[in-house]
């Protein structure tokens, strides 16, 4: 068996460099390295979370995500989930920057609440936080997660 010690990073294919950099900057990511031998930009946030933006995407589906927005269910990674300590603060920041919540806030019955949003290339991002006792009352519009939504 292979022993995996930790999660290292995720690669996210994008179509427009600056548009993606601007979006991920709103989530606290900054360019750590832009390699000259490949179409990859390494981003990191203050906590050391790493994303690799792969700048060679081509939109052939009219701004649809083939894993999330078409009837057929293709195999692949459907979303990336980031843990946050202050989801209410995140919601306020997202609203201030005009970033649309595509689903949520939702609960899963396990003490977590999540919201889902899309990056400019329609990649799905989940922001997730553990609720404190009674905190579910503070989330306006909180519903139980519906996988068909």
Strand-helix topology:
Blueprint lengths: L9 E5 L2 H10 L3 E5 L5 E5 L5 E6 L23 E5 L3 H10 L4 E7 L4 E7 L5 E7 L12 E2 L5
Parallel strand pairs: 1-4, 5-8, 6-9
Antiparallel strand pairs: 2-3, 3-4, 6-7, 7-8
Folded structure, characterized:
13% of the residues lie in helices and 33% in strands. It is an alpha/beta fold and 149 residues long. It has two domains: 58 residues, Signal recognition particle alu RNA binding heterodimer, srp9/1; 64 residues, 2,3-Dihydroxybiphenyl 1,2-Dioxygenase, domain 1. It has a five-stranded mixed sheet, covered by helices on one side. It is globular.
Condensed summary:
The protein is α/β, with parallel strands linked by helices and 149 residues long. Helix content is 13%, strand content 33%. The longest helix has 10 residues, at 17-26.
What does the average pLDDT come to?
89
State Rg: 16 Å
CATH fold-level topology of the largest domain: 2,3-Dihydroxybiphenyl 1,2-Dioxygenase, domain 1
Main sheet attributes: strand count, strand direction, barrel closure: 5 strands, mixed
Identify the strand order in the major beta sheet.
5-8-7-6-9
Per DSSP E runs of 2 or more residues, the count of β-strands stands at 9
CATH homologous superfamily annotation of the largest domain: 2,3-Dihydroxybiphenyl 1,2-Dioxygenase, domain 1
């Amino acid at each position: 068996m292979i022993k995996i010690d930790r999660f290292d990073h995720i690669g996210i294919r994008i179509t427009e460099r600056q548009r993606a950099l601007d979006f991920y900057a709103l989530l606290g990511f900054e360019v750590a390295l832009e390699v000259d031998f490949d179409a990859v930009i390494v981003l990191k946030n203050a906590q050391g979370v790493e994303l690799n933006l792969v700048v060679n995407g081509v939109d052939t589906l009219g701004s649809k995500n083939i894993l999330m927005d078409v009837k057929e269910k293709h195999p692949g990674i459907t979303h990336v989930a980031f843990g946050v300590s202050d989801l209410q603060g995140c919601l306020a920041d997202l609203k201030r920057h005009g970033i649309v919540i595509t689903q949520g806030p939702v609960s899963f019955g396990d003490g977590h609440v999540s919201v889902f949003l899309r990056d400019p290339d329609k990649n799905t991002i989940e922001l997730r936080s553990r609720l404190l006792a009674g905190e579910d009352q503070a989330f306006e519009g909180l519903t139980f997660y519906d996988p068909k939504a």
